[in-house]
Batch of 2 targets.
Target 1
Amino acid sequence: MTDSSRLAVGDTAPAFSLPDDSGTTVSLGDFAGQRVLVYFYPKANTPGCTTQACDFRDSLAQLNDQDIQVIGISPDKPEKLAKFRADHDLTFTLLSDEDKSVMKEWGAFGEKKNYGKVVQGVIRSTFLVEPDGTIGLAQYNVRAAGHVGRILRDLA
């Protein structure tokens, strides 16, 4: 994946409409005028993704205090996201991008290194969309553990 296909601070956040874990369509536009943290993760109910989701869950009050909403997006089917939500008491929006079109548009799907090999896959990424619809924070290839704490420090 080339850096030119990645989003950067100041870029306009690409619009999307995706089904949530109950099958209801949610659009980025539904959050117009709000700060939204959009994060992309590879697969629900796997160790790293669960750690990251639970960190977002546990830090949601701190993020909400900064008027930040959270949206997690993965290629999982809505039914799997519903199980993920139930298994871990997740209290933020989970969206399904089965065809990975939104991930590709945001630069969160492409070539990455996995155990030393170059593969195609979801690139664990996080973006802060500002109230004006621009990207205020763009992070690619983030580590699941401790990531939310680093975001909170960066925003402080």
Note: The chain is about 30% helix and 30% strand.
Target 2
Amino acid sequence: MSDTSLHPNAVRVQDALIRAGARGAVRQLADSTATSGDAALALGVEVAQIGKSLVFLGDDRAVVIVLSGADRLDTAALAAFLEVAKVRRPDAQEVRSSTGYPIGGVSPVGLPPDVPVLIDDGLADLGVIWVAAGTPNAVFPTTYEELVRITSGRPGRFRV
């Protein structure tokens, strides 16, 4: 049963974590976790331990990419991986309509089934990773291996 004190988006994430057999639980924080720096500060961890979820469109199809908060996305590598000529960042409305989450709170779990998740293999070297849980104030802990499993994510190198 989900924690009813959580925001509905965070409840959606928590329910997805439970269904997937994840070990971590959603934490709703008083401070913003909308950016990797905000999240690291609120959690008392290194920025590298934040798994930031970025949404991009390739041929107008949304994809969520999770990479370390310390890394930058290589859009050319992403386009090559997706086998599209070009990728672009969606606006806030496109992010919400394609994922159901707001910018700053996009979670790689609880997504519509047609939104694939890509996970940068640089996260494999980290222990605990903190990932957005549906709002700019909610996160959950996981590991690289668990994140790949619970998202059915496709690993690859997507960082510069």
Note: The longest helix spans residues 8-20.
